[in-house]
Amino acid sequence: MSCLIPYEPLNALKPIAENVWIVDGPEIAMSYVIGTLPFTTRMTVIRLADGALLLHSPTPLSEDLVEALAALGEVRFLVAPNRLHFWWIGEWKARFPNAIAYAAPGVREAAKERFSGFDAELCEEAPAAWAGEVELFPLIGSFMTELELFHVPSKTLVLTDMIENFERDRVTCRHMPPLMKIGGVLDPNGSTPRDVRLTFLGHKKKLRQTVKEMLERKPERVLIAHGRCYLTNAEAELRRAFRWLL
Description:
Elements (H helix, E strand, L loop, with lengths): L12 E5 L2 E12 L4 E12 L4 E5 L6 H8 L3 E7 L8 H7 L4 E4 L3 H5 L8 E2 L12 E6 L6 E6 L4 E3 L17 H8 L10 H4 L6 H13 L4 E3 L10 H8 L5
């Protein structure tokens, strides 16, 4: 039984800003201590000036979605932004073999039984092909490093698990909202999950510096993989969500 109401329509492009779209995918169950936890899924699509498409945290491939993307440009970059977000990247690499599949640190090890075809690891430096359009902000932890993207022309910041913001009226299992509130991921107070914070205990100085750099970009919207995105008041929401760190 599903615990989360999906953000329909699924597997469809939804415009967010000029040259930025999201695609909401199905619920996925993630292993956690004893059992599994449900998560909604979301991909971000960024079109570069030369027509290249960057897919961040790809959701399942469908031919209808492939057709819709073809109307926008050519799929050239696939990004698995952390060791938890790689599940469908192999489908996209198989469909677009010339696309460059990037893995955040730790992803190759986590994904090896499902997909081993990553072309390169991405961490400190953004690819030259993205120069002036997409900046890279690596949040480096002991267990997990997450790659955040900032689309410069639209001032859109793309996060993955560093902020989760589940909406109460989309949670159908009665036991989940109290757990989400304790975990710090229930809207309107979504934040970095408390368990994820633990991976940064020895890296807070560098993490704080990188978050401040993201704030300096004055994002106009913040996209996240799980829950309600921040399409307005984004800078203030980003600062609030990271107050545990700042």
